[in-house]
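Human: We require from you a standard protein entry with sequence in single-letter code and fold as tokens, and nothing else.

Assistant:
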Amino acid sequence: MSRRWRAALLTAGLLAAGLTGCSAKAPTAERPAAPADRSTSATPTPRVPAGNAPTESFAVGVRQLQLKRDGDRSLPVTLWYPAAGTAGGDPERSVAAADGDFPVVMFSHGLGGRPDDYAALLTRWAAAGFVVAAPTFPHTSRGADGNVLDVLNQPADVSYALTRVLALDGAAGDPLRGRLAADRVAAAGHSAGGVTTIGLFTAGRDERLDAGVVFAGTSLGVGTAFAGATAPQLFVHGELDEVVEYAAGKAVYDAVPWPKAMLSLSEGDHGRALLSDGAALRVVADTTVEFLRWSLYGDAAAKGRIASDATRGGLATFDNHL
């Protein structure tokens, strides 16, 4: 563990209180007041060159990678990917990949969760033309020991898993050989996975990352010292979040120095809209897909659709500094 992560442990005890119940249902809290936005309009431009995202929807394949970091840290990874075949059905296990060069999105689950819990959202990303890789963390997943302090080790887990996933692009005989855009990568995560994602842009900065999506995240333990090359960020947070207060997520968002936006679900809780289909999930899915199309494919038309998707149906407000 690096010196920066040891220093973070001094404050990491707060994680236990701040993230316990990450995936559990709880009573609705009163709506907190958000702090004033301290962002500036002078933000650097993303490094992904202009391009076009796929216009068609893909079938979705799913498979597992059985990884171990440092020899004994079990880290199975679920992969959802654009697959050959007819779009619209359920994901098929280990089917052939579609033709194309697809960006990669690393997704981190919340405390007491697993990647499959988020399949309703993540399969939509895959169908839109992204390879989604989601590790199951050894101590914070459902059925593990629940050691919330291990969240501070998870950014390194994600970086390790990313290295192994990108290696598939050159692996002889692998279904994803020649299918990965290794220079176009994002990180995303929910709750404790949101902390993990923020850490990948702060204390544990992975310079391969071009963008981030943070669902109900907080900076506890990882800080807000965003570093490295420009990486646009999209924050999604329920204003009635009963686990991670809306104001805490907004404070991290305010500290981001890059192009950024925040989707605030006015009746949203800690993120159950991510776990099952419904109007809120459709807004979140469509907004995040267009954000990823812009930030990873360089699709300017997708950028123009983000705000309208975010505010469709009046379920959310959208603070836009992209």
